[in-house]
Amino acid sequence: MSFTRPYILLPVNRHKIKKIFIDNITRCQADNTYSILHLSNGDRIVVCKSISYFEELLSSYDFMRVSRSDLVNMQYLDEINMGKTCQILLSTNAVVFVSKKWLQALRLRLSERATELSSVYELS
Q1: Fewer beta carbons below 10 Å: N end or C end of the chain?
Q2: What pTM value is reported for the model?
Q3: In the predicted model, is pLDDT for residue 14 greater than 90?
Q4: Among residues 97, 48, 89, 41, which one has the least CA distance to residue 68?
């Protein structure tokens, strides 16, 4: 059985389509009608697609919408700071603000993860 890393093909301009491995995308950031994909190597790709497009496309992977303008790959989550404003620190050192609208969903997702982890440790 061979394992293939999931990827997407993105038009980066009128003449070029680029293959992007999904696990290399750290976050998607909205910029009006464009989206900026931040990659683990520090590169950024600007695409003429809405963040909603990427939210739907990446929904079966470990991505989560945390604000109107940010979709985060939870595999890169390094730290969460719950102060007056909630901030996520990614392993790439990027800081992403979590809006109040998506804060409850983030808490629920993290508690589900904690439950999954505890059941894994109980099995071993």
Answers
A1: N
A2: 0.85
A3: no
A4: 97
**Residues 45-97: pLDDT tens digits?**
999 899 999 999 999 999 999 999 999 999 999 999 988 889 999 999 999 99
CA distance 106 to 1: 35
Triad 73, 76, 79: Cα angle to 5°: 115
3-state class of 85 per DSSP?
coil
CA dist., res. 117 & res. 100, Å (int): 26
Q: Which domains does the chain have, with CATH numbers?
A: 7-123 (2.40.50.1020)
In the structure encoding, which two tokens stand for residue 3, read together? 């394992």
